[in-house]
Amino acid sequence: MDSLVQAASKARANAHAPFSGFKVGAALEAEDGRIYTGCNVENATYSLTICAERVAVFKALSEGARKFRRMAIVADTPSPTPPCGSCRQILWEFCGDVEVILANLEGKAESLRLSDVFPRPFDASYL
Ligand code: THU
What we know:
Blueprint: H1 3-12, E1 24-30, E2 35-39, H2 52-62, E3 68-75, H3 85-95, E4 99-104, E5 109-113, H4 114-117
Parallel strand pairs: 3-4
Antiparallel strand pairs: 1-2, 1-3, 4-5
Helix pairs in contact: 2-3
The structure holds tetrahydrodeoxyuridine (THU).
């Protein structure tokens, strides 16, 4: 299994998902090879819940990383789970058109580019 998928899978074990029971792990690889992981963290208000992907991006940014190569996302679904709309926007803004690897716990994986699932994004070029 790809080491980035492995890292996302390991991060998934830390997911705090008492409300949905849906655990997600993410791992973001920076240009220098460092890997930043994240899991979803839910909140009793529901709306303050944050997805695994955004936790990984914000961790990376807060540690000074700015250029990224790939993100892996792991969930326990028959068909690998794609990132939600909010995460697509954040990924586009901070990571650009990175490779996104969607994988499940059985090792089924598919690789795509962010622009495949997020065509015609709004970004700072419109401001
Ligand atoms: N979730 C993620 O962490 N990433 C996704 O790509 C989809 C959804 C989380 C949010 C919430 O904690 C749970 O999965 C159910 O939506």
